[in-house]
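Researcher: I'm preparing a figure for a lab meeting and need a structural model of a single chain. I don't have an experimental structure, so a prediction will have to do for now. The sequence is pasted below. Please return the structure as tokens so I can convert it later.
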Amino acid sequence: MRWLMGYSWPGNIRELQNIIDRAVVLSSGIVLSLPPDVGAAACETERVEPPSVASFARTTLTPEGSSLEEMERRHIQTVLTQTQWTIEGEHGAARALDLNPSTLRSRMKRLGINRPGRTA
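Model: Understood. Here is the structure written out token by token.
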């Protein structure tokens, strides 16, 4: 985590996203391991220690939050609650999630997310 926070990210958020995506695919178990070649060039120019392992403690996730799908469900529900279940518009959940409103509706349907008090 220190390496991730201390790196200057010349490739901006896309570089970070690519590194995390790669780590998720290559890691097994509950520890997210950064590939050994990550940051090698940066370490030469910025004198930053190369990463060994970035651990995300299992205790930060609730038991039902161990799957990516459940994490996505909870995140969408949180944003919907914060936007008072407004999907479209300037203050809507779709904008906050950087999604097209129809895409958000499709994900809500796929994940079984319904507004409290309403059925599918």
